[in-house]
Amino acid sequence: MTPPEGAAAHHRALESLYAAAPINRLFESRLEIVEPGVARIRFRVDQRHFHAAGAAHGTSYFKMLDDAAFYACNSLVTDRFLLTTQFSLLLTRPLGEGEVVAEGRWVSGQRRVFVAEARLIAADGEEVARGTGTFMRSRIALASLPGYAATAA
Predict the structure, then answer these.
(1) A single Pfam family, by name (predicted)?
(2) Which of 13, 88, 104, 122 is close enough to 39 for a disulfide, judged by CB 3.0 to 4.6 Å?
(3) Each residue's pLDDT tens digit, 78-134
């Protein structure tokens, strides 16, 4: 099997970076960069993510939406790690246990600031939340991050 090159190598390296992030030990999830500017993350929500009323806490919604939007944007940037500078959420329905998909799409920006939208789709196919984020280039080189560097080399 030939190792991926160019954009495909960058996308696989971002998927590896996501998997290596310590926060993702708390969330059963898997990132897929579908194409430049589009990211999809499959999550498994369980009772560990619930608030006292028995549904997913808002922090879980934010995590899923922010990650999908972030990786959609960072799929277009091959040299630097992006940082979330702003994120707006719209929660439309309680989310219980089960599979959920976060889909992120780049909207605008190509140099320093990027904007992306994301939505959460529950196992029944219904949208339960959406969000819009703004992301900015950092000074952190992607190649300096162990999870990324191992795959992109």
Answers:
(1) 4HBT
(2) 104
(3) 999 999 999 999 999 999 999 999 999 999 998 899 999 999 999 999 999 999 999
Domains: count for the chain: 1
Q: Which of 132, 153, 31 lies closest to 89 in space, CA to CA?
A: 132
CATH number of the domain encompassing residue 141: 3.10.129.10
Closest C-alpha among 128, 16, 31, 101 to residue 70? 31
Structural domain span for residue 121: 6-152
Cα–Cα distance for residue pair 139/79, rounded to 1 Å: 10
Helix (H) / strand (E) element for 16: namely: helix 6-20
Q: What contacts 121, CB < 8 A, 6 or more positions away?
A: 100, 101, 102, 103, 127, 128
Amino acid of residue 141: A
3-state secondary structure of 71: helix
